[in-house]
Specification:
- The protein is mostly beta strands.
- 9% of the residues lie in helices and 37% in strands.
- It has six helices and 37 strands.
- The strands form nine sheets. Strands 1, 2, 3, 4, 5 and 6 form a six-stranded mixed beta sheet that branches.
- A hairpin with a 2-residue loop joins strand 27 and strand 28.
- It is globular and about 80 Å long.
Length: 602
């Protein structure tokens, strides 16, 4: 099933005719309304912590670091409620809260007048719901001075001159929301994850989300997506849900005069995806002074490649130099590999196979040592691919990954692979590999993953984690918008997308100094342990099939990973994949031969 692709979206045009939307257009009823889905949070704001909530000094500072959460324009007032009168007068912080991850618990000095907090700066939370990372990771210690007034409790006497928001406050009081922008080829939507205050009334959500869309994409995405046209704004009545309808009026500039029909179609799909969590059935859209158009149904879902992700993907490993399918307990699992047969499924060490419905694309690393090479190919679904060599790669070839796998024109299909610590791109037709570089790019590339939208990527470079976008230029693929992320791990060695807004990463835990695997948000501000301690052997590779955004799962399916030549399945604990895990007729395990290099059928 499709995973990483730039969708060849079939756009169902609404025949509006002329320039813009004609005055006499009729309602277009497209069937049942969009799924409302659920939010990533619990939909309600946690109890607000006040100055009087505790008499414990360490907890007081912990509560203080959550006070900035809430309405953006009144954050300063909430923070000042923790302060003494003189401190309030002197405290004038910038409006954007600094989002910090605290390290360990707040530490009290001997006299208990001061509390010290070790922190990592993750970025600033803007009114647009984005956390913008700092230019480079920053760690340090903040010092807070407290005093106790008899009968009144604790007061903050002195604090750093910033609004500070801990990741605990972010997690407690905000929900992740995803808006969407069309990629530059207009073939698919690209997710842009924001933070929405948890207690925002549902009546206000359409206005906030439209404001985010009009404000444009996150800076790191700008080279890969199209913003709404200049001059786009909401007009007339504030968007609200009434009688199961969401009515939106946008200025005439929202749709260009050239190719207006296609532009309107793209716009309504973009709006339906960005607003899909709201409980409405009909989207009523007016552009300028034109007639209202009505949309419902689920045809808009096809504009997001991630919607094609299946709930139970096929899993594969390499066993005895052959790609083998893993057994699935709940369904038949014939030991076959799409696009391959016995003649080309041999002498394999690593592989990536993806299908689009129309085509299957395969990339196989074959041979060993100095004779290792990458062979790639494609074929119509149900047929066998002809594999061709990718030339020009140095040694030490890693796991290939497909980045662009079109439904129709296979000429544009391309993938990425790491070789000799550098990133290379290749075409499905074979031929010479070309190195992918980026401004300031240094260090050994250890891992690369491409999101289902085919543009967003995450990389492990020199032990550090980055996010970036793939753009299509005249000579192929390029990386831009590179931003370093700061997960609570040292020496990040592996990464994969686990949903539209989350990554799974592996590395050394900063506290325990043991190998850990965790899920983190796309900005590294939130985290959740997958496997907190798997020993001392570094993870060389991991893979997890991303969650479909229309499901309730926040992260992807079962994790699989490699340490050395061994392959593991990450459940509540690590379980090694063995010969008994293979589909097809069982055979006597060969001594010293174990499954390795696991992957999902994308």
């Amino acid at each position: 099933m499709l995973r990483r692709m730039i969708a060849g979206t079939t756009v169902v045009l609404v025949l509006l005719g002329g320039c813009g939307i004609p005055d006499d257009s009729d309602v277009t009823d497209l069937g049942p309304g969009p799924s409302t889905g659920i939010s990533s949070g619990d939909g309600s704001l946690r109890s607000r912590l006040t100055r009087e909530s505790t008499s414990d000094r360490a907890q007081f500072v912990t509560n203080y670091l959550q006070a900035a959460a809430g309405d953006y324009d009144t954050a300063l007032d909430r923070v000042k409620q923790f302060m003494s009168a003189p401190a309030k007068e002197q405290f004038n912080a910038p409006a954007a809260p600094r989002v910090i991850r605290t390290i360990d618990t707040p530490l009290l000095t001997a006299d208990q007048d001061k509390v010290k907090v070790q922190y990592e700066l993750l970025g600033t939370l803007g009114k647009n719901g984005l956390i913008e990372p700092p230019a480079e990771p920053t760690t340090g210690t903040y010092e807070f001075t407290l005093t106790e007034v008899t009968g009144e409790g604790l007061f903050m006497v002195e604090a750093p001159p910033f609004l500070l928001l801990s990741t605990r406050g972010l997690d407690n009081f905000y929900e992740e929301r995803t808006i969407y922008f069309w990629n530059t080829e207009y073939t698919g939507l690209v997710p842009d994850v924001r933070y929405l205050l948890g207690d925002v009334p549902i009546e206000q959500e359409p206005t906030i989300i439209l404001g985010w869309l009009i404000g444009g994409p996150a800076p790191w995405l700008q080279d890969a997506v199209k913003p709404l046209p200049d001059g786009t704004r909401t007009e007339g009545k504030v968007p609200a849900i009434e009688n199961n309808q969401l009515a939106i009026t946008l200025s005439a500039q929202a749709v260009p005069t050239q190719d207006a029909d296609e532009a309107v179609e793209r716009l309504r799909r973009q709006l339906q995806w960005s607003l899909r969590r709201l409980p409405y059935e009909f989207l009523k859209l007016r552009i300028g002074h034109q007639e209202v158009r009505s949309y419902s149904g689920t045809d808009y879902l096809s504009s997001n490649p991630a919607h094609r992700l299946v709930p139970n993907p096929d899993r594969y490993v390499v066993y005895d130099r052959t790609i083998r399918r893993l057994v699935e307990p709940d369904r038949p699992t014939p030991d076959t590999v799409p696009g391959l047969n016995a003649d080309n499924n041999k002498d394999v060490s690593r592989a990536a196979v993806t299908t689009t419905g129309s085509y299957v694309y395969a990339a196989l690393v074959t041979g060993s040592g100095k004779n290792e090479r990458l062979r790639v190919g494609f074929a119509p679904a149900g047929q066998v691919a002809t594999l061709r060599e990718i030339t020009g790669l140095p040694g030490d070839i890693g796991h290939p990954v497909w980045a662009i796998t079109p439904e129709g024109d296979t000429d544009g299909a391309a993938g990425l692979v790491i070789a000799d610590g550098k990133l290379w791109r290749f075409r499905a037709q074979g031929g010479k590999a070309l190195q992918v570089t980026w401004p300031g790019g240094t260090g050994q590339v250890r891992a690369i993953t491409v999101a289902p939208d085919g543009h967003r990527v995450a990389l492990a470079v020199g032990g550090r984690l980055y996010r970036a976008v793939l753009t299509i230029s005249g000579d192929g693929l390029a990386l831009s918008g590179m931003q370093e992320l700061d997960p609570p791990l040292e020496s990040v060695t592996a990464v994969d997308f686990t949903s539209e807004g989350w990554l799974t990463v592996a590395g050394t835990d900063r506290s325990s100094k043991r190998i850990a695997i965790m899920d983190i948000s796309i900005d590294a501000a939130l985290q959740s342990d997958r496997l907190a301690d798997i020993g001392t052997n570094p993870v060389s590779y991991l893979t997890t099939y991303p969650a479909n955004p229309e499901t309730n799962r926040p992260t992807g399916s079962t994790l699989m990973y490699s340490t050395g030549t061994d392959a593991w399945e990450g459940l509540s604990t690590s379980v090694q994949l063995k010969a008994g895990s293979l589909a097809g007729p069982s055979s006597e395990p060969r001594p010293g031969v174990v499954p390795g290099a696991p992957f999902f059928l994308d």
